[in-house]
C-alpha cells in the first residue's frame, strides 16, 4: 500500500491519488488519479474511498465525516469549474460512478448528468446552445436515477422511449426532437412517482448523495455477488465512488464517445482497436444499443482528436507496460479521458501480448510469466471448429471472445439456466446483454448478440470469463418475445442447434464438428511455430512454457494407469507418474478373476486366484515402466472396497430370485450374492479398503508387490531404467505401514535373488486421512515418501461424501458464500491445507530426505499448485491434459516467490 493513504480521510481529489492506491481508491479512481498525474486531459473530480463504503455496508449509514469531506471537495470542484452543482443558469453536472479494486464491468451502478432539474435544464440549453441536448441529458438522468437509485423497473422507461420513437416513426433516439424529449421527461417523471412513491428529486445535492449511497449498495446486488464468485473476487473489498465533472459526447456530430484498446483484446495484435459513436454518451457504447463505427474511422471524423488519442494510448501503454482499455469522450472537438485500466483479454491475446512486451523491452520474462495463467492455457487447449467440415453459415458478427461453442438456442437467461441445469448445452442469444443476464451468460456455452462490438457488455464480460462470444451480428434479427432468430428467410427457433466461432465471428446452423487445438497439437509434438496466426500463438506459448520450466521447482507428474496415458502424459511434459491406480487393471475381463479371489473359501483357492492375476499385473507394469523409462512411477496398491468388483446387489438379487422361481439357480450367482451381502457396507469409503484389504486378505498386496518387482527386474534386464515406487493407500497408523512394508521387503528380496537384479524400489504411503496427517512424524519412520491424496483428505476433513454433496447442497453453499469455490476444486488452505502443511513439517523432521507429492485432483488446479509450492512439496501429479497447466503454474509460483523474496 502506498504511503499516501490517510486512514482518517474518506475523499481524495484526482490530483491526490495514484495507480498504487487501488485498495483505497478502486481501480477507476486510482487510474483517473494516475492519468491526472501524467498531465492527460481528465475532467476534474474526486473519489470516495472503499473504506467509506465498508463503513456504510457495515452500519447502514455513511461515515459521519463523509458529508463534510464531500462538501469541501465539491466546493473546490465548483471553484475550479466556475459554476455550481445544479445552479439554474449554468449548472455544473457530475457523474457518480462505481469503481472497485478489480474490474467488474457493468455489475455496479453509474448515474450521469446529476445536477439537472426542471430549473437547470433550461440553463443547460442556453449555455450549450442546444435545447435537444439539454432535454436528452435530463431524460437520461431520470431514467438512470429511477432505475439505479429508486429501483424502478428499467423496462418501463425503455417502453416509453420506444413508444416515443414509434410515434415519430424513427428508429434511433437521436432522431427525437427537443419537444419529443420534453414529453418523454414528463412521462419518465410520472413513472418515477408512480413506481417509486416519490417525485424525482429536484435538489442537486440530494441527487448526488442518493446516487453515492446507491453505488455503495450496488456492491451487494445479486449480480455483483454472482460476478465476484465467478471471478473469485473477495466480497469484503467494497467499492469506491468517483464523482467526476460531466463532459458530453451527445452535443452534436463534433462530439462522441468511445472505447479504445492499445492492442486487440481478442487476438493481441497491435493496431487501432475500439469503437466510436458520434453524438452519444458512454452508456450507449457499452450497452450496445446502437452499433458503433470502428475506432479507425475517427481519423476521418475528427483528425485532431484521433491523433491526440493515439499519442495518449501510446503514453498509457508504455506507462502501464500492458494492454490498456480506455474510455474517452469528445466534447465539441475537445478530447477527454474518462477511464483507463489494464484491459481484459482473451487467453490467446494474453500469451501473445506477454511475449510482444518482452520483445519491446517493456517487461522481462519473469513478468511475462505472471501475465498469463493456467486457466488461460486450459482455454487454449479446447477444441476448435473443423474448417474442412461442411457447414451452413447463418451470418457473421464481431469475434469478441474466442472458442468453438455449440448448443441449443435460448433467448433469455432464465431458460439458459434452467436448460443448463438439466444437462443441455445452450447458446444465449440476445439483441444485447446487460448485467442482469450474467447468470445466463455463465450457464451458456457461448453468447451471441445482434448488437454491440468488442467493447459491449457481452464482449467484455465474456472475455473476462473465458466464454465464447460473437457480438454485433447485424444480419441476425433476434426476437426475444417470440423466442426466435431469423436471417435471410431462415428461422432459428428456441431449442435449435447453433454453433458460434468466437475466433472468426461466424455463426452456423446446426452442430459443427471440432478438431484439436493447435496448442494441444504443439504439446503432443505435432505442430511447431511458424508464420500463420495459430503458429504465432504456439510460438508465444512455447516461449512462456520454456521459461516456466526453467524456473519452476515443483516437478509435474501424471495420474496414469496404462501405457497409452503414460506416453501421452510424457509428450505433455510429465516427469513421471505420481499415481497409477492398480484397481483399474482389475476391470473388464479380469473382473471374473477378482470374483474368484473374493469367493475363495480356502488358502488354495485364494492362492490360485492370485497366481492367475500375477502375470497379468506384471505385464501391465512392464508396459508402464517401458513407457516411463528413466522416470519415477508411483504404483498405488489396491484401494477401493472389494464390493466395487462385484455385481450390483439389486441386479444380482433380481437375477437370483428369477432363477430360483424357475428352479434353475446358478450356484456361482448364489455365492456371489452371499459375498455381496457380506461385503456390503453403509459407508464403504470409510470401510474395508486400502491398507485394510492388504491386512485382511492374505497375499493380495504381496502379489501386487511381486508383480511390480518382477516387471522392474524384467525392464532392468532389458537395459531399461525402471524407477518404481510402491504406495500403500489409506494408512492411518504407522503400525499398518510397518506390517505391509515388512511383507513387501521380503517379496522384493525374493525377486532380486531370483532375477539377479538390484532393485531400488521405494515404499511410501498416501496421506489421505486426518490421523495420518496428524501422526505424519511417526509414519515417516516407515515411509520413504508421502503422496497427499487430497480428494479423500478433503472428504474426511469436511465429513463430505463427494459423490453426494456436490449434487445436493454445494450449489446453495456457493450461492450463500460459504464456499468461494468447491473445496474439491481448489484446496481448502485453512483446513485441509493446514493438515498438509503440518504433515510436511512433521514428516521432514523425522526423515529430512522424505519425498513429498500430491496426487489428488488439486494437483492440476492452478491456485492449489501455488499452495503446494509454498508448503515445500517436491511434485504435483494430475491428469495428462492438465500437465501443461500445472507446469505453467509451478513456474509462476516459483517466479512469484522469487519476486517476494527480492522485495
UniProtKB/TrEMBL annotation:
Requisite cofactors: Mg(2+)
Catalytic activity, reaction form: pyruvate + phosphate + ATP = phosphoenolpyruvate + AMP + diphosphate + H(+)
Chain ranges of the Pyruvate phosphate dikinase AMP/ATP-binding domain: 66-291, 298-348
Swiss-Prot/TrEMBL keywords: ATP-binding, Kinase, Magnesium, Metal-binding, Nucleotide-binding, Pyruvate, Transferase
Domain PEP-utilising enzyme mobile: 424-505
A Pfam cross-reference name: PPDK_N
InterPro entries: ATP_grasp_subdomain_1, PEP-util_enz_mobile_dom, PEP_util_AS, PEP_util_C, Phosphohistidine_dom_sf, PPDK_AMP/ATP-bd, Pyruvate_phosphate_dikinase, Pyrv/PenolPyrv_kinase-like_dom
NCBIfam families: PRK05878.1, pyru_phos_dikin
The protein's name in its UniProt record: Pyruvate, phosphate dikinase
Organism, as annotated: Streptomyces sindenensis
Gene: ppdK
Amino acid at each position: 500500500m502506498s504511503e499516501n493513504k490517510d486512514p482518517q480521510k474518506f475523499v481524495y481529489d484526482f490530483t491526490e491519488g495514484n495507480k498504487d492506491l487501488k485498495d483505497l481508491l478502486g481501480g477507476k479512481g486510482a487510474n483517473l488519479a494516475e492519468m491526472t498525474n501524467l498531465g492527460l486531459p481528465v475532467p476534474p473530480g474526486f473519489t470516495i474511498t472503499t473504506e467509506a463504503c465498508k463503513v456504510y455496508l457495515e452500519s447502514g449509514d455513511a461515515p459521519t465525516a463523509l458529508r463534510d469531506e464531500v462538501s469541501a471537495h465539491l466546493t473546490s470542484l465548483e471553484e475550479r469549474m466556475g459554476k455550481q452543482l445544479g445552479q439554474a443558469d449554468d449548472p455544473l453536472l457530475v457523474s457518480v460512478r462505481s469503481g472497485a479494486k478489480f474490474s467488474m464491468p457493468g455489475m455496479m451502478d453509474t448515474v450521469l448528468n446529476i445536477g439537472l432539474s426542471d430549473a437547470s435544464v433550461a440553463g443547460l440549453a442556453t449555455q450549450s446552445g442546444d435545447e435537444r441536448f439539454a432535454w436528452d441529458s435530463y431524460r437520461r438522468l431520470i431514467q438512470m436515477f429511477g432505475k439505479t437509485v429508486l429501483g424502478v423497473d428499467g423496462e418501463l422507461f425503455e417502453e416509453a422511449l420506444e413508444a416515443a420513437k414509434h410515434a415519430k416513426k424513427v428508429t434511433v433516439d437521436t432522431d427525437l426532437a427537443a419537444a419529443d424529449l420534453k414529453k418523454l421527461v414528463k412521462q419518465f417523471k410520472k413513472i418515477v412517482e408512480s413506481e417509486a412513491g416519490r417525485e424525482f428529486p429536484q435538489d442537486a445535492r440530494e441527487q448526488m448523495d442518493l446516487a453515492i449511497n446507491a453505488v455503495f449498495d450496488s456492491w451487494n446486488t445479486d449480480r455483483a455477488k454472482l460476478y465476484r464468485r465467478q471471478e473469485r473476487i473477495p466480497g469484503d473489498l467494497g467499492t469506491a465512488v468517483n464523482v467526476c465533472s460531466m463532459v458530453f459526447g451527445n452535443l452534436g456530430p463534433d462530439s462522441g464517445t468511445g472505447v479504445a484498446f492499445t492492442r486487440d483484446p481478442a487476438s493481441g495484435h497491435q493496431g487501432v482497436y475500439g469503437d466510436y459513436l458520434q453524438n452519444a454518451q458512454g452508456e450507449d457504447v457499452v450497452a450496445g444499443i446502437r452499433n458503433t463505427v470502428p475506432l479507425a474511422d475517427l481519423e476521418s471524423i475528427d483528425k485532431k482528436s484521433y491523433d491526440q488519442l493515439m499519442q495518449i494510448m501510446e503514453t498509457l501503454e508504455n506507462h502501464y507496460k500492458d494492454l490498456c482499455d480506455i474510455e474517452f469522450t469528445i466534447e465539441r472537438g475537445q478530447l477527454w479521458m474518462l477511464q483507463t485500466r489494464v484491459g481484459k483479454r482473451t487467453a490467446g491475446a494474453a500469451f501473445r501480448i506477454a511475449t510482444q512486451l518482452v520483445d519491446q523491452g517493456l517487461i522481462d520474462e519473469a513478468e511475462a510469466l505472471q501475465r498469463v495463467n493456467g486457466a488461460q492455457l486450459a482455454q487454449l487447449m479446447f477444441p476448435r471448429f473443423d474448417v474442412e467440415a461442411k457447414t451452413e453459415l447463418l451470418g457473421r458478427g464481431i469475434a469478441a471472445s474466442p472458442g468453438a461453442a455449440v448448443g441449443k438456442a435460448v433467448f433469455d437467461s432464465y431458460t439458459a439456466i434452467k436448460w443448463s441445469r438439466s444437462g443441455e448445452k445452450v447458446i444465449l442469444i440476445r439483441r444485447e446483454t446487460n448485467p442482469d443476464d450474467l447468470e445466463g451468460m455463465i450457464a451458456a456455452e457461448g453468447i451471441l448478440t445482434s448488437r454491440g462490438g468488442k467493447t459491449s457488455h457481452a464482449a467484455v464480460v465474456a472475455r473476462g470469463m473465458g466464454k465464447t462470444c460473437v457480438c454485433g451480428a447485424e444480419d441476425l434479427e433476434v426476437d426475444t418475445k417470440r423466442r426466435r432468430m431469423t436471417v435471410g428467410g431462415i428461422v432459428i427457433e428456441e431449442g435449435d442447434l447453433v454453433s458460434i466461432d468466437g475466433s472468426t465471428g461466424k455463426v452456423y446452423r446446426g452442430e459443427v464438428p471440432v478438431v484439436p487445438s493447435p496448442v494441444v497439437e504443439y504439446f503432443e509434438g505435432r505442430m511447431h511455430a511458424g508464420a500463420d496466426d495459430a503458429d504465432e500463438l504456439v510460438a508465444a506459448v512455447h516461449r512462456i512454457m520454456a521459461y516456466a520450466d526453467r524456473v519452476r521447482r515443483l516437478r509435474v507428474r501424471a495420474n496414469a494407469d496404462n501405457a497409452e496415458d503414460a506416453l501421452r502424459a510424457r509428450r505433455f511434459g510429465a516427469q513421471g507418474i505420481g499415481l497409477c491406480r492398480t484397481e483399474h487393471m482389475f476391470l473388464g475381463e479380469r473382473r471374473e478373476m477378482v470374483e474368484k479371489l473374493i469367493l475363495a473359501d480356502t488358502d488354495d483357492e485364494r492362492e490360485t486366484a492370485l497366481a492367475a492375476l500375477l502375470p497379468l499385473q506384471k505385464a501391465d507394469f512392464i508396459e508402464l515402466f517401458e513407457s516411463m523409462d528413466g522416470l519415477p512411477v508411483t504404483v498405488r496398491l489396491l484401494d477401493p472396497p472389494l464390493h466395487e468388483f462385484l455385481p450390483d446387489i439389486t441386479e444380482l438379487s433380481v437375477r437370483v430370485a428369477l432363477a430360483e422361481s424357475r428352479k434353475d439357480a446358478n450356484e456361482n450367482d448364489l455365492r456371489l450374492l452371499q459375498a455381496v451381502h457380506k461385503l456390503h457396507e453403509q459407508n464403504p469409503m470409510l470401510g474395508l479398503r486400502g491398507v485394510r484389504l492388504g491386512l485382511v486378505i492374505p497375499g493380495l498386496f504381496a502379489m501386487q508387490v511381486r508383480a511390480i518387482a518382477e516387471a522392474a527386474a524384467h525392464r532392468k534386464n532389458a537395459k531399461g531404467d525402471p524407477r518404481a515406487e510402491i504406495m500403500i493407500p489409506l494408512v492411518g497408523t504407522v503400525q499398518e505401514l510397518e506390517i505391509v512394508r515388512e511383507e513387501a521387503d521380503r517379496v522384493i528380496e525374493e525377486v532380486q535373488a531370483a532375477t539377479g537384479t538390484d532393485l531400488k524400489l521405494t515404499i511410501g504411503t498416501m496421506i489421505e486421512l486426518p490421523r495420518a496427517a496428524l501422526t505424519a512424524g511417526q509414519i515417516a519412520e516407515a515411509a520413504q515418501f508421502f503422496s497427499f491424496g487430497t480428494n479423500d483428505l478433503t472428504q474426511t476433513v469436511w465429513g463430505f461424501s463427494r459423490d453426494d454433496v456436490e449434487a445436493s447442497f454445494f450449489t446453495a453453499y456457493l450461492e450463500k458464500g460459504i464456499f468461494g469455490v468447491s473445496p474439491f476444486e481448489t484446496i481448502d488452505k485453512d483446513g485441509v491445507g493446514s493438515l498438509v502443511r503440518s504433515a510436511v513439517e512433521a514428516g521432514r523432521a523425522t526423515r529430512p530426505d522424505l519425498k513429498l507429492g500430491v496426487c489428488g485432483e488439486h494437483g492440476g488446479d492452478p491456485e492449489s499448485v501455488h499452495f503446494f509450492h509454498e508448503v515445500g512439496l517436491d511434485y504435483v501429479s494430475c491428469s495428462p491434459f492438465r500437465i501443461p497447466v500445472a507446469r505453467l503454474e509451478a513456474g509462476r509460483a516459483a517466479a512469484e516467490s522469487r519476486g517476494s523474496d527480492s522485495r
